[in-house]
Amino acid sequence: MLELKEMFHNPRCVVCHEDMDYQMSWGQLFSKETATLLCKTCLNKLIEIHGETCSICGRSFENGEYLFRREELCFDCIRWEENLEWSNQLACNTSIFTYNDFLKQVLATFKFRGDYMIVHAFSIFIKRKLKELMPNILVPIPLSTERLYERGFNQAEALIREAGYNPTHLLSRLHTEKQSKKSRAERIHVPQVFTFIPDVIDVRNQSILLVDDIYTTGSTLRHAAKVLKQAGAANVSSLTLARGGQYCLCYL
Ligand SMILES: [Zn+2]
Ligand SMILES: [Zn+2]
């Protein structure tokens, strides 16, 4: 006969596969909100972003980042906002965790191994944040057809679905060439990355929340936001699981 905990919960951590028996509690077992598929060791490796952040990109100002800020904005966002082509496109990004080595490994696992259980484990954090943000339209950043074929699923879409929300597909990628082969400057200067898919919903005067796994330079999300604003959206924000910590300082 199955032990009770096995009926309710996978007793192994989905990231490191360690046995989680020792830290199970009745509370965790029965509360969907607190239930997690990650062990304590892995949870402790996650650095949640809290406290003061850049008011546009959500970067933490907690670790001496004041060197790279002017009032409520970080240097990267100041540069984006000074550029007429890019100012006022992305209203506000919220990222849940700092992109550290642990998260890098986790994201690589769900991108390249197509491990859906890991996406499921992390969707719990997305769900909590979505409850605060209360978006009405959630748009996943699309993958190219080629990448989708390699991975089997779009991790941004999976994060939305696993959090219990419905994604609205309003964007498609214009080119399939791998972004990672390009330099940062090339990625930022490509004229258009996405195209708007018409006739799905009327986006005019709507607020839209983009979802992606990581905010790195902010270029992808700004390209997406721009396309949606051109289609009439009133406001475009974004939510990502991770926020890369490096300053770009070189792209405009
Ligand atoms: Zn673990
Ligand atoms: Zn910023």
In short:
The protein is α/β, with parallel strands linked by helices and 252 residues long. It has helices at 4-8, 26-30, 40-45, 75-82, 101-112, 116-133, 145-151, 155-162, 184-189, 219-230; strands spanning 69-70, 73-74, 93-98, 137-140, 171-173, 194-196, 207-215, 235-243. A four-stranded parallel β-sheet has the order 3-8-7-4.
Estimated share of beta-strand residues: 15-25%
Instruction: Calculate the terminal CA-CA distance, rounded to whole Å.
Output: 63 Å
**Largest sheet: number of strands, sense, barrel closure:** 4 strands, parallel
**What is the helical fraction, as a range of percent?**
25-40%
Query: Which ligands are bound?
Result: zinc ion
Strand order of the largest sheet: 3-8-7-4
Mean pLDDT: 83
Please provide the ordered H/E string of secondary-structure elements.
HHHEEHEHHEHHEHEEHE
By helix and strand content, what is the structural category?
alpha/beta
Shape: globular
Radius of gyration: 19 Å
Number of helices, counting only DSSP H or I runs of 4 residues or more: 10
Would you count the extended β strands for me? 8
Low-confidence stretches are 1-7, 29-34
What do you see in this structure?
This protein has 252 residues and is of the alpha/beta class. 35% of the residues lie in helices and 15% in strands. It contains 10 helices and 8 strands. It has helices at residues 4-8, 26-30, 40-45, 75-82, 101-112, 116-133, 145-151, 155-162, 184-189, 219-230, and strands at residues 69-70, 73-74, 93-98, 137-140, 171-173, 194-196, 207-215, 235-243. The strands form 3 sheets. A 4-stranded parallel beta sheet has the order 3-8-7-4. It has a two-stranded antiparallel sheet with strand order 1-2. Helix 6 (116-133) crosses helix 8. The protein is globular and about 55 Å long. 33% of the residues are buried. It binds zinc ion (2 copies). One zinc ion is lined by residues 54, 56-57, 59, 73-74, 76-77.
